[in-house]
Design goal:
Elements: E1 2-4, E2 7-9, H1 11-35, H2 39-42, H3 45-65, H4 77-101, H5 111-131, H6 133-137, E3 140-145, H7 149-160, E4 167-173, H8 194-200, E5 205-208, H9 220-228, E6 232-235, H10 236-244, H11 254-259, H12 267-303, E7 308-314, E8 320-326, H13 351-358, H14 367-372, E9 376-378, H15 385-394, E10 407-409, H16 411-415, H17 422-438, H18 441-457
Parallel strand pairs: 3-4, 3-5, 5-6, 9-10
Antiparallel strand pairs: 1-2, 7-8
Helix pairs in contact: 1-3, 1-5, 3-4, 4-5, 7-10, 12-13
């Protein structure tokens, strides 16, 4: 993994993006060279170069929105074929719009050839990269110090890992005095030192998964020897943050949030985020205006009730504000006045409500909350005060998510299903803590791309 603006990015995904960007540029350049052979078009060479760059950027953007660079979604040849066709179709639509708006960007007769060469190049690149020895070289071999509950969680993450960054848990080194929660097959035989064990099994990294580090048997000196010997040593909290984009509550030491860096709330970050909020919200409002008008008309026609629904939510620093949404439930959804968690196949949801929730259309009016400065476009989703008080009493560090503005979309929304219980709230909080700690404009853009995919495929709605 590599870190870009505090966010962990898979080396494989990054290499793949760079290779495909070059391939798309070369495809467009070859097509341009063919048609630039005509002297009448030679004077327009600069326009062709701009067109080639626009072609590559738009296609990469289209593939990103359909999840072809997603950290948790490894592409095999079949999956690539399934995704590459709609990706290039979306790219064709976006380029057609761009060519119409900017006359100097065009491909004339060579456009279809550029798409064909680009698609074949992307397909071959992914086939070679995923089946070559180079992809295996990017795999990490880990040793866990500890064999307790935390080690079991790390092993479970490794077993479920399907992202571009692959890693293998070689085994665990048991620490005396800690409960053993892994199978005996995963326990590594003793050796003079941890460094010797790491070199014996070719491990490049050691993950400390021991909860009680004050235990006299904790191998602090041996871990230092490993670090000095070229074997990277990290703790379980860093491991989960890097591999799952989560700050796990069960592995979190109180000092980690204090001394772990991040939490950028500088003037530059606040200004760039506000500009991004306003630009993204304005663009979404303009693009989605017909959809919002249709949704409002349908809601009004279904039961004659109000189109919009306002609900008190907890914002930055615990301040209460009213969030605006399209009404997706019956008018008497909470007739007794007591807040209720949403449930799967909730009978209170109307017919139009099922659709607008699935496509997240019900959230569109919250752009007004963004313009007012009550919300950001990206951030932790705001929760109702009734549930916040419950969660603060039951979930450690829950109030940390209120240190920044809530968002219309967020990392938890694109990585986890709709929250409908305390357990769901804990799991979503782990993503929210990651965002609060590592938020940046780069991460906002990635979440925005993931949000497009969530909307297109209706993931995580309830």
């Amino acid at each position: 993994m590599i870190r870009i603006f505090s966010h962990y990015v898979s080396k494989m995904a990054f290499i793949l993006l760079l290779l495909e960007m070059v391939i798309l540029l070369v495809s467009a350049a070859l097509v341009s060279a063919i048609w630039l052979g005509d002297a009448r078009t030679a004077a327009r060479a600069e326009d062709w170069y701009l067109s080639s760059l626009a072609f590559a950027l738009v296609i990469v953007f289209s593939m990103s929105t359909l999840g072809m660079y997603q950290h948790r979604s490894r592409e095999d040849i079949r999956n690539t074929l399934v995704r590459i066709m709609p990706s290039f179709a979306l790219g064709f639509a976006l380029l057609s719009l761009l060519f119409y708006m900017v006359p100097t960007i065009h491909f004339a007769r060579g456009g279809l050839l550029a798409f064909l060469l680009g698609a074949v190049g992307v397909l071959l690149t992914r086939l070679l990269l995923f089946t070559s020895a180079g992809s295996a070289m990017l795999e990490s071999r880990l040793i866990l110090v500890g064999a307790g509950p935390l080690a079991r969680e790390c092993i479970a993450l490794a077993a479920s890992k399907v992202g571009y960054h692959q890693f293998t848990v070689v085994g665990c080194v048991d620490v005396p005095g800690e409960e053993c929660c892994v199978t005996s097959a995963l326990l590594l035989p003793g050796a003079p030192s941890l460094l010797a064990i790491a070199r014996r099994y070719g491990a490049s990294e050691i993950v400390v998964s021991v909860n009680d580090r004050r235990n006299g048997a904790f191998p602090a000196r041996q871990l230092l020897e490993c670090a000095l010997g070229g074997v990277r040593v990290i703790d379980a909290a860093t491991f989960f943050e890097r591999e799952a984009c989560q700050i796990r509550i069960d592995s979190l030491q109180p000092s980690y949030l204090t001394y772990g860096g991040g939490f950028d709330q500088s003037f530059v970050r606040a200004t760039s985020k506000r500009i991004f909020d306003l630009a993204a919200s304005a663009a979404i409002c303009v693009a989605a205006l017909p959809v919002m008008l249709a949704a409002a008309l349908w809601i009004r026609c279904e039961d004659g009730g109000p189109v919009f629904y306002q609900q008190e939510r907890v914002g930055k620093d615990g301040k209460i504000f009213k969030v605006l949404k399209f009404r997706s439930m019956r008018k008497d959804a909470e007739g007794d006045g007591k807040p209720i968690w949403a449930a799967a196949d909730d009978p209170r949801v109307t017919r139009v409500g099922q659709l607008i929730r699935k496509l997240r259309i019900d959230e569109l009016p919250q752009m007004l909350n963004v313009f007012r400065g009550e919300m950001s476009f990206v951030g932790p989703r705001p929760e109702r005060a009734y549930f916040v008080e419950q969660l603060k009493a039951q979930v450690p560090y829950y109030d940390v998510r209120h240190s920044i503005k809530p968002g219309v979309t967020g990392l938890a929304q694109v990585r986890y299903q709709y929250g409908a219980s305390v357990d769901d709230a804990v799991r979503k909080l782990q993503y929210d803590l990651y965002y609060v700690k590592n938020n940046s404009l780069f991460l906002d853009l990635l979440i925005l791309l993931d949000t497009v995919q969530v909307v297109l495929f209706g993931q995580g709605s309830r």
